[in-house]
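In the laboratory, one determines a bound structure by crystallizing the protein with its ligand and collecting diffraction data. In a computational setting the workflow is compressed into a single prediction: the sequence and the ligand go in, and a structural description comes out. We illustrate the idea with zinc ion.
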Amino acid sequence: MLPFSDYHSHPQGHRHQPWTPELLQPWADSARRHGLREIAFTDHDRYHAGVDLDALDRTREANPDLALRAGIEWDNDPVTGAAGRAWVERHWDRLDFVLGSVHYLGASRMFDSIGEEAQLTDRPVDESYRDYFARVQAMAESGLVDCLAHLDLIKIHGHRPATDVLALVEPLLQIVRARGLALEISTAGWRKPVGEVYPEKKLILRAKALGIPFTTASDAHSHAQVGENFERLGALLDECGITEVAVYDRHRREMKKV
Ligand SMILES: [Zn+2]
Ligand SMILES: [Zn+2]
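The predicted complex, in structure-token form:
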């Protein structure tokens, strides 16, 4: 079946571009073209100054056939993470959905950027994985996120641990279950050097066995990427026996049939 919701998108891309109905409308149009019924706008928290929830309300009025969700992707940026957290706390009641993610491993540059592989390989890869999952666990335990983004982003450049990744991620999955959080299944990994969905299938199956719910996502940084590879994603959901996905209204989760 074709997924109906895209719960990870960046209307501002990677720069400050305040939300207006004109900025958001092409994203709604793209969602509709792809047969989606829901899209969550989840700009990076470092661009929170551009997130205008009133502009979103006006866009909602113009698109009553779509569920347009107010979200944010809050990460562990050593410079902006604290201000991002304060912003999330301040706007919690008007947000539908908060994604938690880790893009930093101690350095001031995102490890998932092109040319940053050395951040993973300057020590044993297993250590990088353990460090990464520990940082994701801290986000999961923050009490400020509904769902974790790209759970195994650490594989982005194609480096794999010697230890079974299932063993490395298990403690984190236990926290995700205990906290009642969701995980996203993101097509973004298919367009990255690793060429594999986030998270990989065996992690999806383990999370499913634990009863952890999933969202579906593209991590679009352009409206042209909304719903990207969702046919392939739908086939993967079928293979994994996933028949319903999570949607959020003011952080209240509802499971809907795909
Ligand atoms: Zn991210
Ligand atoms: Zn993102």
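The first helix runs from residue 21 to 33. Keep in mind that any predicted model is a hypothesis to be tested, not a measurement.
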